[in-house]
Fold each of these.
Amino acid sequence: MKNSILPLLIASLLLVGACGGGDQKAIDTTSHDQAQQASSSEQMMNHDHEMAEVANKAHAMVKLPTIQCDVCKAAIEGGLIKTAGILSVMVDLDGKMGHVNYDGDVLSLEDVEQAIADLGYQANDRLAEPSAYASLPDCCKVPQ
Ligand SMILES: [Cu+2]
């Protein structure tokens, strides 16, 4: 009994294996296509977001002397991008510098600095809002 079932088992395992391989390929192709679609639609969104005919695109390098760690970087990048008129944010943790692209028709540099200060971080000479700074995690506060 065992001897007659074993070849069948092996055969079906091989079949399943081959089938699984085929499925895998199909899945890979699909997910690749999806990834491509996702990335191209993401590019499109960024494109729209940035190029929604921003006539007065401005770039600022903002000194961030109080940032301490990756949490600060993420907080500023993630928080600032939600501000209307901000097009992109990149925080250089080592250089303690924020690179901000914004719509100069919507925001001034002072507005950008204030938005960062409202997140609890000093921006250029504009000091962090005390209440926002107080609610930062300890790792993001300036060592005393
Ligand atoms: Cu931090």
Amino acid sequence: MERSIVVVAEHTQGRLTPVTYEAMACALEIQRIQPARIVTVVVGEDAVEVAQEAIDACDQSVLAVKVPGLDSYNGEAYRWTLSHALCGLGASWICVPGTTQGFDFGPGLAVRLGASCLSNIERVFEQDGQPIFVRNLFNGKISAELSAAAPTLLIVQPGSFRWERHDIKGRSYVEVITVEWAPTHTRLLGFKSLYPVDSALRDALVIVSAGRGIERRENLELIHRVASLFPRSAVAGSRPLCDNQWLPYRLQVGQTGATVAPDLYMACGISGAQQHLAGMRGSKFIVAVNTDPEAAIFHEADVGVVEDLEVFLADLLEESARLTP
Ligand SMILES: Cc1cc2nc3c(=O)[nH]c(=O)nc-3n(C[C@H](O)[C@H](O)[C@H](O)COP(=O)(O)OP(=O)(O)OC[C@H]3O[C@@H](n4cnc5c(N)ncnc54)[C@H](O)[C@@H]3O)c2cc1C
């Protein structure tokens, strides 16, 4: 049987989500190392309509798994339908976006397929003709390189693979199968949007972002004062600050928060966990202030300041006051 690399598409309201394209980019990198056809699989009642977007995006085969009545995500449905749909594809690698959905159905799907499962994959490179998968541990301080035997399901870390549009060479096609499914254990009651992203974050040219390293809530005052030095600026934070209720969730940057791309992003007391980087990696210039010279954020930063943020930010404010007429 011809081997394949499968991408499980995530979609909402009839559109593929950006992380699906990142999973496709991961599949393309594996394909460069180990040639195989790529098949994007779309599951749901509107699978055929959504499949068209995948076809338009690049030169790939798309399998639309039409499931009557499945008008929104259901983990049980994904595990069940995908375990059947993937049987005939000879999948060596199955790339799943590393979102709440991917983590929900991915490991269970791997079990059903008799595949292994690697999570948080952020890079792939070649060694002796085999793909080696890279993920980080301990908030980016340790990088693990993993080799795996096919079949393996890969949960792809959001923000790690860059999608570039490809020339469409006209070899792509959609195959449609219909699978009947009825919920037995879980059913969706509804969606609630809890934390709308602050539009000020999207519009800001400068974002001063606070992490757990600010240590005390009162230090947010320093962060606000530094932000106020710049026109069109905003204050944001990492997840622990929002969990502590020091900042509202609408100001959280990262995988489960806002994705931002300001001209300047100042990360103050932020370690640089992948989940945070996923939301701010696109910033044009990154300044990181951290007492730990080994902090992972320094790999992303254009300027790294190894200093206590209270000392550095106070100096910055003082210097700015001195220079302001
Ligand atoms: C599914 C999932 C989704 C997630 N989504 C998000 C998300 O959207 N956004 C997000 O941010 N996180 C997210 N996380 C959490 C993420 O994994 C990290 O735990 C979090 O980003 C760490 O936040 P931090 O860098 O502020 O804190 P820490 O990792 O604790 O880092 C604090 C840093 O401050 C430094 N520091 C300490 N004192 C000082 C000082 N006085 N001056 C300067 N530096 C100092 C330390 O050296 C350290 O590097 C998610 C996790 C999971 C599992």
Amino acid sequence: MAGVDKGGNVSAENLNALLERRYGADAPSLGDDVNPVLQALLSHKSVRHFSADSLPDGSLEWIVAAAQSAASSSNLQTWSVIAIQDPEQKAKAATLCGDQEFIRQAPLFLLLCADLNRLTTVSELNELPGEALDYFEMFLMATIDASLAAQNAAIAAESLGLGICYVGAARNKPRELSELLQLPPRVFALFGMAIGKPSETDVSAIKPRLPQAEMLHHEVYGWTDRKQWIDRYSATMSDFYLSQHMNVQGDWAKHSAKRVATAEALSGRHILLDFLHERGFGLK
Ligand SMILES: Cc1cc2nc3c(=O)[nH]c(=O)nc-3n(C[C@H](O)[C@H](O)[C@H](O)COP(=O)(O)O)c2cc1C
């Protein structure tokens, strides 16, 4: 069994076994000490089948405490999170977020937002112009802060025996989602995260990643035999798709190239720059 059991609990599977799941034959050979944090991190897998059980009391608060414990640029804390638990509101959000059924199933759906509205208020309260808020840098900062917080939330949820799946499709229909969430100006829903107990029928597995030889550069950006690593990884992923009965057209490289081939492949997200301007982000 993987490092996470049916209930989502991290088992004591040794770290080398987890490295092998992540990298296959290209796994680095490292020590095999017990390290629960590394075990939890290396055991991550997205879950898209949730049981109907509601979350144990306190789960949301623990998850948000972990999210808020992430580092934050200048401690500006330029993000907010909207927790949707009401089934009706969640169903509406699911429809707008790529109509993904697992969002309806999950008892909790978080929307992670870049939030420059709070600093607008802080500026007004201090009678300062808040001019920097009109620059792209501030939007980027908010996006980075929200992403760091989200990943802490994900790990916290997994440590509580829950499964998670990020939802980038939250940007497919940004106007409609902003309206549903009643977002004020300078608040933008970056992505969602469905959270719940993995269902009995969940068959998710640890997904391999590109070898470190392709991802990790020493001192300067170094060029490896990139084609070799892409081919090797594509072959590994083809085996993974087969083992998981996943209906993926072509191998990883083909699938990924198609994903960035056209503006249409952005599933409606090509309008985001205009939309952000509309919502009061200067992006200078
Ligand atoms: C920002 C972000 C957005 C994502 N959006 C979706 C989504 O809308 N639907 C989905 O099924 N998975 C989504 N995913 C999950 C990825 O497909 C998944 O993380 C990736 O395939 C790697 O698999 P793993 O998480 O099981 O290791 C998203 C992941 C991230 C980080």
Amino acid sequence: MLRNSIHLADDGQRSQVSTSAFRPTHAEVNLAALRANLATIASLAAPARVVAVVKADAYGHGLEAVASALEAEGVAGFGVALAEEGLELRRLGIRAPILVLNGVYGRYHREVLEARLVPVVYDLDQVEAFEMAARDSCVEVHLNLATGMSRLGVPWREVESFLNALSRHRRCIISGLMTHLAAADSDFELTRVQIARFQRVLAHLKAMGHRPRLIHVANTAGTLLHPHLRFNWVRVGGGLYGVVPPGWESHFLPTMRIRSEVIAIRELRAGDTVGYDATYRCTRPSRIATVPMGYGDGLPRSLSNRGRVLIRAHRCPIVGLVSMDLVMVDVTEVPKVRVGDEVVFLGEQHHDHRREAIGLSEIAAWAGTIPYDLLTGISRRVPRVYVNQSC
Ligand SMILES: Cc1ncc(COP(=O)(O)O)c(C=O)c1O
């Protein structure tokens, strides 16, 4: 059994979820949707192969279940931000190549090599640390170039002096070259400039005798919107979890649904207030439902008096301030709401003949953030429930 997660039988009956002995607030992760998204992106990217980015607990979906499902589908490898995430993948039994995208901090270079993690480097201190850790053996690294993000990577203007200094490190083999796109979905001119810089460095590297086998640039938006940037690997995170640029949504499936249940209903009068600081005051007789999910679970506090949830397939407004464990919802307009009714924060709900859905982008717009922030913000307190585990 995974830590803080629940696995359902393959029929994935939702009714089983709500009979949990504990709080009915769950994030349902649909592994069939994950596999379908991988298949879509893999067929678009081919012949380039997909490196699945599973940092931050697989974008909040749960590292073990997601990585196991994706490895079974034959991804080229995994991308993580931190060495400790890579070590965790090895502990979980993942055998595919693992790229540590953000470099290795601290002192665990030897452990990183022993676990066959592939370090991404961007300064000479890192190269030296890995050479020391490798003792007499050669060490394979991927080189990160900063071509426009100005975050990590060897700054493109300094690459020549970096490569000259690197030539003294004979046991360091550059087996891959990467850069990260800053605005693949929003600034095509910057993307073009980034690629021009990248290509110049690639040519220079080859002229110096390096033979990087694995060239990777594209994230989800790069893969979908700039086919010429696929090279031989693409590093895809968002697309696996159904987060794609506008216009591509119909080709991908949502992978997470967040649900809970009504635990109390209060009949209020005009003038009554709701929640901390009394930021909501009823203007009419109102039915207010209390739902056990709050900012301690990753429900953004910025949804206070702004967001919506689904009950009986109706959109119901969040009223008052979201508190740490609870949120209140106005159900006055929805007939017959009862304690125990399902509440959906994210995803679809069906009731009688109605169907309604709330998507990640919609919540992100209400909350003034982006879908990735929402997904990775769902806290450990919310059990991940896996549905459709096998093909
Ligand atoms: C270096 C790097 N490559 C690839 C990705 C995957 O990006 P996306 O989730 O947009 O596909 C990320 C994620 O931020 C990243 O930091």
